[in-house]
Specification:
EC number: 2.8.1.7
Family: Belongs to the class-V pyridoxal-phosphate-dependent aminotransferase family. NifS/IscS subfamily.
Order of helices and strands: EHHEHEHEHEHEHEEHEEHEHHEH
Helix content: 40-55%
Structural class: alpha/beta
Bound molecules: pyridoxal-5'-phosphate
Strand order of the largest sheet: 2-8-7-6-5-3-4
Number of domains: 2
Number of helices: 12
Organism: Paenibacillus nuruki
InterPro entries: Aminotrans_V_dom, Aminotrans_V_PyrdxlP_BS, Cysteine_dSase, PyrdxlP-dep_Trfase, PyrdxlP-dep_Trfase_major, PyrdxlP-dep_Trfase_small
Shape: globular
Enzyme class: transferase
């Protein structure tokens, strides 16, 4: 089987597995304990933070370990909205966010916050002017993703942050960086953003570990009350092995980013050309998109049917984002782009990673041809 669902999750690096197993066996202490077991675990967590801070070009005190990007996104949004005990105010986000941002905003609406959901243009990219038009004096936070997890569309982070910090610097800007890091250059300091979420398992690290960058001086309401770990921002005994594993994965992913990007460009172009040459398939990718995601639809055919046919040909792909793929509804992201329902209901996401080879891509192209040949008699016209 060939796995083409790297945007859902990735196989951990062998180095990550090895170091995590070692830590669980040898350094199982609680970082809050005062004895030598605790001190060793605390040293590992602090060292991981220093290394991660260096990779991200930020201060160690600005990194908060979390259980993954779902928690990071919830913490960024709820933490910012509810600081100082507030229950009112305005939030701007987009209609194409991951459910961990989108559904979190829906919850905040139920509590009393106002949320503006900005639609992208037909190319999947949100226009800064549309966010500018939605800004209000009481806007607490603007939350936007770097790269969309279904279409790969790259959002204009720098342009947005430059404008926002000039016109209303008190409004925070949060970036969900999950699908961008390791695929595109990331520069948190240059972007001048306040909050940035990452998840380890999208970068060949462990599941259940992530981080939130919180710019120094940013006040957030802590979601988890307890023993006051993570400078009081996030209580709970630290996932020492996960944190060390994530740091290793971040280091490898950032070192390999530019070489991987070159390979991904060649492969994604090859795939896009092949898709465009197959009668019946429609390429959905916007022109400005990250190279690890290729999205197409096969109107008249259901996504699941295409997915299972490709699986029979030995290729694992995805229908939409992993978190939404069990829902019967067509993708919210595609509908927001103005894609017709029938096209949206027949979408397939191919996502690539560093372990792929030229032969894997050739195998996938043959499988795409075979799938369409096999399914053509079933097409609903
Ligand atoms: N944000 C984006 C863009 C994602 O693709 C994902 C995972 O699919 C998440 C957030 C959630 O990450 P996690 O699985 O670490 O909770």
């Amino acid at each position: 089987m060939k796995y083409f669902d790297y945007a859902a999750t990735t196989p951990p690096y062998p180095e990550v597995i090895q170091s995590m197993a070692e830590i669980m066996q040898k350094h199982f202490g609680n970082p809050s304990s005062l004895h030598q077991y605790g001190e060793e675990a605390d040293r590992l967590v602090r060292h991981a933070k220093e290394v991660t801070a260096q990779i991200l070009g930020v201060k160690p005190s600005e990194i908060i370990w979390t259980s993954g990007a779902t928690e990071s996104n919830n913490f960024a949004l709820k933490g910012a909205a509810m600081r100082g005990g507030r229950t009112q105010g305005h939030i701007i986000t987009t209609r194409i966010e991951h459910p961990s941002v989108y559904e979190c905003c829906r919850q905040l609406e139920q509590i009393g916050f106002d949320v503006s959901y900005i639609d992208p243009a037909s190319d999947g990219i949100v226009r800064v002017e549309d966010i500018q038009n939605a800004l209000r004096p009481d806007t607490i936070i603007v939350s936007i993703m770097h790269v969309n997890n279904e279409t790969g569309a790259i959002q204009p982070i720098q342009q947005l942050a430059d404008w926002l910090k000039k016109v209303q610097s008190r409004t925070l800007i949060h970036v969900d960086g999950v699908q961008g890091f390791g695929k595109l250059p990331v520069n948190i300091a240059q972007w001048n953003i306040d909050l940035y979420s990452l998840s380890a398992h999208k970068l060949r690290g462990p599941k259940g570990t992530g981080l939130l960058y919180v710019k120094q001086g940013t006040e957030l309401f802590p979601l988890l009350a307890g023993g006051g770990q993570e400078n009081g921002y996030r209580s709970g005994t630290e996932n020492v092995a996960g944190i060390v594993g994530m740091t290793k994965a971040l280091r490898l992913a950032s070192t390999e980013q530019s070489a991987l990007s070159e390979r991904l460009l060649v492969w994604s172009e090859q795939l896009k050309i092949a898709i465009q040459s197959i009668e019946g398939l429609v390429l959905t990718n916007p022109s400005v998109s990250a190279r690890h995601i290729v999205h197409f639809s096969y109107p008249g055919m259901k996504s699941e049917v295409i997915l299972h046919s490709l699986e029979q040909q030995g290729c694992i792909v995805s229908t939409q984002s992993a978190c939404s793929s069990r829902k019967a509804e067509p993708s919210r992201v595609l509908l927001a782009m103005g894609v017709e329902r029938e096209h949206a209901a027949s979408g397939i996401r191919i996502s690539l990673g560093d372990q792929h080879t030229k032969q894997d891509i050739e195998h996938l192209i043959i499988a795409l041809h075979q799938t369409v040949t096999q399914l053509r008699p079933l097409e609903r016209r």
